[in-house]
Amino acid sequence: MRTDTTSVLVVGGGLTGLSTALFLAWRDVPVIVVERHPGSSPHPRAVGFTPRTMELMRAVGLSGSLPEYKGDGKGVRRIRVESLAGQWFEEQPWSAPGKATPLFDYTPTRNGGLAQDRFEPLLRDKARELGADVRMSTRMLGFEQDDDGVTATMRDDEGVEYQVRASYLVAADGHRSPVREALGIERVGKGFLGESRSVLFRAPLEEYLERGYVQFMIDQGDFGGAVMSYGDGRWAFFHRNEVDSDEDTLRAMIFRALGRSDVDVEIITEGRWQLTAGVAERFADGRVFLAGDAAHTLPPSRGGFGANTGIEDAHNLAWKLAAVLTGASAPSLLATYDAERRPVAKLRHDQIFLRTQGAATDVETIDDAAMEYGHLYRSSAVLGAGPELPPARRPDQWLGQPGTRAPHVWLAPEVSTLDLFQRGWVLVTDDPAWDGLVDGVDCRVIGNETGKADEVRAAFGLNPGGASLVRPDGYIAWRAVDAPADRRAALGSALAEVSAAPALATS
Ligand SMILES: Cc1cc2nc3c(=O)[nH]c(=O)nc-3n(C[C@H](O)[C@H](O)[C@H](O)COP(=O)(O)OP(=O)(O)OC[C@H]3O[C@@H](n4cnc5c(N)ncnc54)[C@H](O)[C@@H]3O)c2cc1C
């Protein structure tokens, strides 16, 4: 049997797998993705993408192709209605009262609004353009791992079987995850929540989007469901009615939800969804990593964290795999993936239920900006993020706390501090005395002459002469609030520790 070799094998070509491939290829890591289907599912699921997801896409040059969410720039808004044409009642916020904050003061981006079946091809094309080998209609049949790598057996659409040998495997194979099952990794959480059905249709209903709402919770007493817009003329009606699938019945149900029957409705397809909530007990096993729904299912009916969390997993993992594969970091860096991402998934899981079921537990309800931009990573790739700190806060509360995403400050029109990060390790300071001290660190001096030094120091929590070390994923790894006596020694030992560098060269 033929054997193809690569550095990273990604199983699953959905949003998470394709994002993993894109972020790896962007870092010049050889990667093969296998997806058993020939293309994206004709029934899109996700449509709402967070500003953080858009920040990650901005970093790899894709955000220009992604439209902003239709509406008023506030992202996914929903309202309880009798029907679209009937009476409209109150808005149903995603957050607890008083916990919603304007999201985009903290970011150079906005919410992305694009149906999953349009987003996936963009990711696929960009990943391929950067060198990823994306193989559609190819199913992984099984895999084995040893001390040096993973060997997986594939079957292509012509029935030809072959092997792929890779250093690492990323399982982005969805919520049923055959890879997770094969590894015997259990999930913890609320579990099965119920089944939902949907009918996807095309109809000219743009007039109902004008007030900024994109999801309509239908409440007619004995009849209910949710009508949601995919922002491109397509809509879906989600319901739990056990009805026949013939066109007349589906059309009658749609007309009832719309509150009118004088509109052209083209039925595209139907869907049936199992809603589950759970987080894998571990996100890694040897050389295999779980990402996206394989690692956590976060129900869409309660927040829209699902795909966005998967894309963030992919981003967290990609720079670490790249660093280990090039030998810049020891394999121990990879243990920080589970340490950093599993608590985020667990927190999101708990917040989803807290937000909708009230504060019945001792978990505090966390506001939107903290959930979006303020997760704290605690791992060996961060110095100074102790157990006494809360799991998430807003960037204006953290003020550059190591373990959190480096804050956004506009440095010039269209240039954010976030644009300084992603390629490698970056030191942010106002003092040129830090420049050139340690190999592998790109020192960015934002001095008083820029007119931005005060703002940057305040956002990063630095005094004049201090410095923040930012990881290749834009998270703060370490900082010296004031200049230490020996800058080179302080920075060198911090970098060696957080990057798990086998040998650190100082110039
Ligand atoms: C109705 C609905 C609406 C949603 N809306 C939102 C939203 O607005 N925002 C949001 O963030 N999330 C939303 N979600 C959640 C989101 O859709 C999922 O979190 C996301 O699709 C997960 O992506 P993934 O790549 O991890 O998994 P998947 O999309 O499930 O992809 C896994 C892929 O792996 C492939 N695969 C599996 N096994 C193999 C194998 N052995 N070999 C080859 N290929 C294999 C599958 O074919 C599949 O394509 C929604 C979900 C639903 C159901």
Automatic annotation (TrEMBL):
It comes from Labedaea rhizosphaerae. Keywords: FAD, Flavoprotein, Membrane, Transmembrane, Transmembrane helix. Its cofactor is FAD. Pfam families: FAD_binding_3, Rng_hyd_C. Residues 6-346 form the FAD-binding domain. This is 2-polyprenyl-6-methoxyphenol hydroxylase-like FAD-dependent oxidoreductase. SUPFAM superfamilies: FAD/NAD(P)-binding domain. The chain crosses the membrane at residues 7-26.
